[in-house]
Write a structure and sequence with these properties.
Helices cover 29% and strands 35% of the residues. The strands form six sheets. The protein has a six-stranded antiparallel beta barrel with strand order 5-14-17-16-15-18. A five-stranded antiparallel β-sheet has the order 1-2-22-21-20, covered by helices on one side. It has a four-stranded antiparallel β-sheet with strand order 4-19-24-23, with no helix packed on it. Helix 3 (140-171) runs antiparallel to helix 4 (177-203). With 401 residues, it is of the alpha+beta class. The chain has six helices and 25 strands. The chain has helices at residues 13-50, 71-76, 140-171, 177-203, 260-263, 392-399; strands at residues 61-63, 66-68, 80-83, 85-89, 92-101, 106-109, 115-120, 127-128, 133-138, 215-219, 224-229, 236-237, 244-247, 251-259, 271-276, 284-291, 301-309, 320-326, 332-338, 343-345, 348-356, 359-364, 366-370, 374-379, 386-390. A hairpin with a 3-residue loop joins strand 23 (366-370) and strand 24.
Length: 401
Amino acid sequence: MTQTTETIPAPVAPAKRKGRRRIPVLIAAAVGAVAVVGLVWGLRHRVAHSAAVAPSRDVPWIEGSAVRFSPEFARRSGMKTSPAVMGEIVPTITVTGTVRFDPKLVAAIGARINGRVRKIFKVPGDRVKAGDALAELESAELGRTQSAALTARAHAQAASANEKRERGLADARVSSERDAELAHAQAEAARAELHAAEQAVRALGGQGIGAELGVLLLRSPIDGKVVESSIYRGQSLEPSHTAFRVADLSRVWVELAVFERELSAIRPGDVVDLAPQTDRKAVEHGKVAYVGDVIDLDTRSAAVRIEVDNAQGLLRPGQSVMARVHTTAPASNVLHVPMSAVTRIDGVPTVFVLLTETRVEPRKIELGLSDGTRVQVVSGLALGELVVTEGVFAMKSELFR
C-alpha cells in the first residue's frame, strides 16, 4: 500500500484580516486631514471676513488701520469731536511729590560719649520745648571728666586764696612783690585749668559742677514733637547712635521730580496746590522755593522744592502727594487739543482722529505742556484734524476689553 503525503499550505487568512483592518485606518486619516484643512480655511475666512463685516453686537470693530462704529453707538456713547487748534497755553504742571522735613526744623539727638540708658522721659508723639530732657544716661567717661573738673575747681580756689594772701603781704611789705606776682601767675593757671575742665564737661553734654557725677541728660535743642525714638532702658549707646528725632512740623518741604521739558516753565514763587494721595479734597498750598540746577541723566528730571505752611498738620514727612504747579511762565502759542481727547494705549498717548462720521483712526501723539484742560501736541496731529473728545472711554473699553 502506497502512502500519500499531503503538503499543507501556510495559512494566509490572518494576513488578509490585517489588510482589511488597515483600510479603515487610512480612510479615517484621510477624512481627518480633510477636516483639518477645512478648519484652517474656515478660520482664515472668518478672520478675513471679520475685518470687513460688523460684529453681531453694536460695538466698534477694526477695519484695516481704522475703527468703524455705527451711528447708534456714537449716539449712545455721547461721542463728540473737536479740532486741533493753535492757541496760547500757560502751563499747569501736575506731578507726584514726597513730603520731607524742613532741615532747619528737625534735630537728631544722640549721646556724644558711650553710655547706658537709665531713664526715658519722652516717647514718639510727645511735644517738647527746647531744653526738655528726653532720656538719662550713665557714663563713666563723663564721671571722670566731671571729677577732673572738681579737682581743677579746688586747685583754682586754693590758688586764688594764696594770690590774695601774697598780695596782702606784699602790700604790707612783709613779703616781696615777686612772691605776689608768682602767686598771681599760679592762680591764673589754675583758673585756666578749671575753665578747660568745665568746657570738657559741657562738650560731652554733661551738667555743670555740682550735678550728679556720670549722669548725662539727652535734651531737645528745639521746640517740636518727638517723631522717632530708638532706645530702651539698659541699652548701651555709642556716639554714632541717633536716640531721638525731634521735628517742628509746622513747616515742611515737598520735593518734586520735574521732567526736563517742563522745568523751564517753573519759577521760584509759583503757587502750588498739594493734595495727599489718600484724600484729594484736602488741599494745602505752597510756593516754589527752589528749582534744581542739575538734570538727572537717568530720569531726565530735576528736583523742585516746595515750602508749605503745615500748621494744621495735614502733611506728614514721607507722604506721597499730588502737586499742581501754577506756573507764571509766558504763554506759548502751540497746537493743542482738549485733555479729554487723550487716552493711553499700551502706555502711549493716543487720540481717535475722525475720518468719516462712522470711522476713526487711533493716532499716537507726543504731548507737550498742559494747562490742566488743554494739552500741547508736539507731533502726530495736524492743525484742524478732528479728534474725539467725549466717548473716548467707551470706544477704548470696547476695543481693548
